[in-house]
Every structure is written in C-alpha cells, then in structure tokens.
C-alpha cells in the first residue's frame, strides 16, 4: 500500500516529534499553561483552514465513496476534534470568539497556505496527501503518549485521550484509506509528488510544535 511507502519516508521526522519538548510536556503534564494556550488558539484557526481542505476534496471527488470519506473527516474535525479545543478554552475562560480572533502566526499561515495551494491546483489524491500528515501524526503522537506516560495527574489528559481514542483513530483510518484509494494506479511521477507533499507537511508539523514551544507570533517579529 502507498501509505506503507510514505511511512518509510516520514518515520524519522515523526520520531523527532516524540522528543520535542512541547510533545513531551503534553505527555508528562509539565507543559507550561501559556504554551498550551498558544497551541489552543493557533490550532483553532489552523483547523478552520484545515477543514477547507476536506471541502475542496469533496468537490474534487471522483465518486460518492470518496466524497463520503472527505465529508466524514470534515464533520469529525468541526464537531469532534474542535470540541476538545472548545472544552479546554472554557476551562481557561477563553470564549470561542476570542479563539477565532487569533491572528495566525506566520508559521501557521505558511503551513495552511502550502496545503491549500496544492489542494486547489491538484486532484483529489493531492488533497488527500495534504491532509494525511495532520490526522495521522496526531494519532501517532496521541497513541505514543497514551502508552508511555501515566496521566493520572496530567492536566492535558483529555488531549492525550482524544487524539488516541477510537473516534480519532477512525478519522485517521479514513484519511489513510482515502490516500491509498486515490493513489491506486497512479504513475510513479505522480506518486513522487504525493510523497513530497507528505514529507513537507511532516516538516511543517515539526515547525508547528516549535512555534508553540516558542510562543511565536507576529508580535515577536514586528510589534506595531
Ligand atoms: C497543526 C495540527 N496538525 C494536525 C492536527 C490534527 O488534526 C492539528 N489539530 N493541528
């Protein structure tokens, strides 16, 4: 399967997430709250752009089954995953309006613009390649944290639970199925393009963790 080949080219990058201080801090609960809040806000506006990918994928779907997969992932993102963000923001006394007013950091915009640009000019397989890393790598991290840390007193327990649970795993399985279905029968030249997108989004994921660890935003670049 195509995703088995993809795994070999991203494995090292994904391993590095597990050593990242932000991810480790989520696992053992030591992550500073302000860094987590930075993730919460940046990720909320990230997910709005990410959801657009699935809408583009639905529009470009060659058949009903593919359309069902794209829209199921779209629904799961808006009404499943984003509920986690809304629940955490309530705990911190941040309203949804405030979350949505977040100015995306340049790293955030670079990542979503990269995906949306490829999705808009590519076919449904390209859209599937754009969205794959997000779902798959968070599920990979969630499962790793669930298996390797004790979460009894971890304030981020719900984070680990959600990204490792059955529902999110199903969402990820749909993203993997989409990729394999749509890559089937493609010539090597096109598979290489899809692979490059998955490797690049994997690097962007690392950058996103770093952005949250450093609480990077436009204010740090130009404070006007
Ligand atoms: C940056 C980023 N990547 C992936 C996911 C998982 O969908 C997320 N919520 N945020």
UniProtKB/TrEMBL annotation:
This is Aminopyrimidine aminohydrolase. GO terms for cellular component: cytosol. NCBIfam families: salvage_TenA. The keyword Hydrolase applies. Residues 9-213 form the Thiaminase-2/PQQC domain. Homotetramer. Keywords: Hydrolase, Thiamine biosynthesis. Pathway: Cofactor biosynthesis; thiamine diphosphate biosynthesis. The keyword 4Fe-4S does not apply. CDD domains: TenA_C_BhTenA-like.
